[in-house]
Amino acid sequence: MELKIDRLTKQYKNKIAVDRLSFTLEKGVTGLLGANGAGKTTLMRMICGILMPTSGDITYNGTAVSEESYRDVLGYLPQDFGYYPEFSGRDFLMYFSALKGLDKKAAKARCDELLEIVSLSDVAKKKIKTYSGGMKQRLGIAQALINRPQVLILDEPTAGLDPKERVRFRNLIEEIGKHSIVLLSTHIVSDIEHIADRVIMMRSGQIIWQGPWRDEDGSLEDFYLKEFEEED
User: Fold this and answer.
1) Which of 51, 99, 145, 193 is least crowded, fewest Cβ atoms below 10 Å from its Cβ?
2) Its domain of life (predicted)?
3) What is the CA radius of gyration of the chain?
4) Considering only CA atoms, which of 155, 152, 154, 210 is closest in space to residue 181?
């Protein structure tokens, strides 16, 4: 299980959003840290095959991200995911299950399981337009998990979650990272401090630091702030 990013670049006219990045992700949770505008979302959209890179390659176990077989193992939660306000939460997940190719019986069982995991079972039949921001975010997390992805890409997934929900979410991601590649982008260090096996820090489209992180290494937040102070 290996997701390889090789000399990846994305340029818009005179602006380089992602600048010759190279790294390899394996099973576990990788935290992607950086301020807004660092290039995190652009990088993730290229990893998901939504944006074409200007140059460089992205492969999963040797397969290009443009291949159908890669999309079958991919789960993605964008920073602003779209939803159908007139759909119920259950209908929304059933719709995405169909897109992922699950038959009706398997889809129903998986949706019930995910609604329980993200604590939306009691509002599953209510329209999404009645959901709070945090509830919509939990629904987005559920849709990203429908196909039990081997590669899970999460862009600012804890936005709108209250402290209790954040803890529940971190526990869930830590568990998923035991058997999948998880890349979690955030500018909130506490979201990943105790669950990330590895950390990548970005600034202005470049990696300024990357490596494994363990609790015994000390405070990730202090280290993060120090790195950015040095850059300043």
Assistant:
1) 99
2) Bacteria
3) 18
4) 152
Residue 194 has pLDDT above 90, yes or no: no
pLDDT digits (tens, 9 = 90+) for 40-78: 999 999 999 899 999 999 999 988 888 888 888 999 999
User: Alpha-carbon distance 99 to 32, whole Å?
Assistant: 28
Prediction pTM value: 0.88
Please determine, looking at this structure, whether the domain spanning 2-73+149-231 carries the CATH number 1.10.540.10: no
Q: What letter represents residue 177's amino acid?
A: G
Band (pLDDT 50/70/90 cuts) for residue 229 is low
Q: Provide CATH 3.40.50.300 ranges for the chain.
A: 2-73+149-231
